Amino acid sequence: MAQDLTRLQPKFDFNRREFVVTTLATGFALAVQPVSAQTITTDTTGLVAGEIKVKVPDGEMPAYRAMPARGGPFPIVLVVQEIFGVHEHIKDLCRRLAKLGYLAVAPELYARQGDVSQIKDFGKIISEVVSKVPDAQVMKDLDATVEWAKDSGHGNVAKLAITGFCWGGRIVWLYSAHNPNLKAGVAWYGRLVGPVEALHPQHPTDIVAEIKAPVLGLYGAADQGIPVETVEKMRALLREHKKESEIILYPDTPHGFLADYRPSYTKARAEEGWQKMLEWFKAHGVAS
Hints:
The protein has about 290 residues and is α/β, with parallel strands linked by helices. It has helices spanning about 5-10, 90-100, 120-130, 135-150, 165-180, 230-240, 265-285, and strands at about 45-55, 60-70, 75-80, 105, 155-165, 185-190, 215-220, 245-250.
């Protein structure tokens, strides 16, 4: 049986941990530049969009939020960053969701460990920052983000969803096992297996029995970092545990196929996956 990530977390003193990142990055992370000419840019017309601060026990975590300028409270979508943090692409995805009537919030979940937007070398992003981010901390920070949305008066917590990309795709699976109030999740090419160690004691295949909200997984069969065998293993476990979750595996499709600012962008798959995500939200009670 899967165990509580918070209980498995080493006894870090979060109250003494300083925030390295106090404001969000501007533009795209250095590691992904130059960006592609096909990059999509969503304007803020009709929206309230920009940086906010989410209160957590040890301070304030920067986050990006976008929502319609009128109406509300809106269905909430937690947007979990790629490995490159909350840079321009993640902000744009929030604006796209806001245009459709959602309150989309992307917290900077590496805020205590480092600013990956200023690191050009991919290996250093992993070794110096990402590998040091505890899963238990991420779960708590996402909970705090939900509280921010509730307290703002603009978010309807009865209609709570999560979506994430790459690093964030893995987090979607974990959070679906963590938060009993979550209605739906959509994981884009998130790693499903991995080495077990103190900060990352479990992976998606380890917590299938504990999944509380239906998750739609969107994966590419040509993903060099996520073997098809692991996707099929996850599918089998979901069937075994009779979970409502589903996985779509697109043939001849690479990792990062939604990332329009990178060469991996696959337009047809990206558009289809986006539509599948919206349909998933609607089918599970998360729609504007």
